[in-house]
Design goal:
The structure is a homodimer.
Chain A: H1 9-27, E1 32-33, H2 35-42, H3 46-54, E2 66-67, H4 68-78, E3 85-90, H5 94-101, H6 103-107, E4 110-117, E5 126-127, E6 130-134, H7 138-142, E7 149-152, H8 156-168, E8 173-176, E9 189-192, H9 195-216
Parallel strand pairs in A: 3-4, 3-7, 4-6, 7-8, 8-9
Antiparallel strand pairs in A: 1-2, 5-6
Helix pairs in contact in A: 1-4, 2-3
Chain lengths: 217, 217
């Protein structure tokens, strides 16, 4: 199988933010919403917002806009967030615990079915309602019926080793929070999530602004 | 002042991952590194890696590659991570605590000088060495000498209000972890970090793969 190459990544990244706004509008009984209104909210050109929603196949009506409920349903269907996606989470440090605590991931269909950590002090404790299991029980628990994804919140130095382990147990998609590019078979989907990447973008914007201010003088 | 529009965002997001790998190579006394090796590591085309490094103005030598130390210094200089960037962090929930615990942000120049939370039970407690201050002391503490950035880890429903407050106190750049598009003056830099955005990308890759597998049958 060939490697998955995703188009429209920025648009897809925006979907949860649209969804949050649309949920608020629906709660306020706003049955329709215009492209202009959403574009203003997102600080984007209306053309971009229109293109984003084309991905969902939901059609707006000229002069009326989109039906709020249709758009919510369309985005959820497009991302398959209308179906459950089983997941195991490995590494219950500060970030792993934070992810276990985000109730919005459940709304988006992620169902965490097991949680592992290699620290024996954590075994048997509960984090946001999830029992922490000993890492050496991964094979016993995951191999029979591997979940769809593994969320790796282990230290970066362990990411490759743990990734290989879960792939060996049959998991074919990894959400990797380690600051490392994993080397895995081509049929395994990997999504790397590096918080420092966001800080790099913010830092670059600061540099650009400072340079702009200096050149204005 | 005009809004900052950043080019090359994907390249900039990759910088911390290059940096981590280069630090490892430097620790192993690998004085030079080839584009091919880094491209293989990153699962990228070598042409893209070359273009990424052009941003840093560090030149490689044909047949030799880059000097590891030059590249590390070049990336840090490009992002201004060779200088300190003062920050206040607001909202010490699970995610805020996790960010306070990431030692790598310090290596990248972020210096958290104050931490606030509106929950009185947290006031005076220490999280990863930082004293949590009462949110109603923000004006007193920040206004005199506002830090360069504010890291907002408050619940999404409070993000806009807290953002307006820190901007009013003189902060001109916000790293926003709320799932909301902030409405702020144009001269304020905002970097939105939505973890669910990464899950949306992963979900879309799963959809693509499932469709590919079905069409193969």
């Amino acid at each position: 199988m060939k490697k998955i190459k995703l188009q429209n990544t920025p648009a897809i990244r925006r979907m949860p933010t649209y969804l949050h706004k649309l949920d608020l509008l629906a709660a306020e009984h706003e049955e329709t919403v215009s492209t202009t209104k959403l574009a203003e909210y997102m600080n984007l050109d209306p053309v971009i917002v229109k293109k984003d929603f084309e991905l969902t196949n939901v059609k707006g009506q000229p002069g009326v806009g989109y039906q709020t409920a249709d758009l919510i349903e369309g985005i959820r269907r497009f991302l398959r967030w209308d179906q459950l996606c089983s997941a195991t989470l490995v590494g219950v440090g500060a970030l792993g615990s934070a992810i276990l605590g985000f109730t919005e991931f459940q709304e988006f269909g992620m169902k965490i079915t097991s949680v592992f950590d290699s620290n024996p002090d954590k075994t048997g404790t509960y984090v946001h309602g999830h029992e922490v299991l000993a890492a050496d029980r991964m094979e016993e628990i995951l191999k029979q019926d591997p979940p769809r994804i593994a969320v790796l919140c282990v230290p970066t130095s362990c990411s490759q080793e743990v990734a290989e382990k879960v792939v060996h147990l049959g998991i074919k998609a990894i959400w990797n929070f380690g600051n490392v590019s994993l080397s895995l078979p081509d049929d395994v989907i990997v999504q790397r999530e590096v918080l420092a990447g966001g800080f790099a973008v913010l830092s670059s914007k600061l540099v650009l602004r400072d340079e702009g201010e200096n050149s204005d003088q």
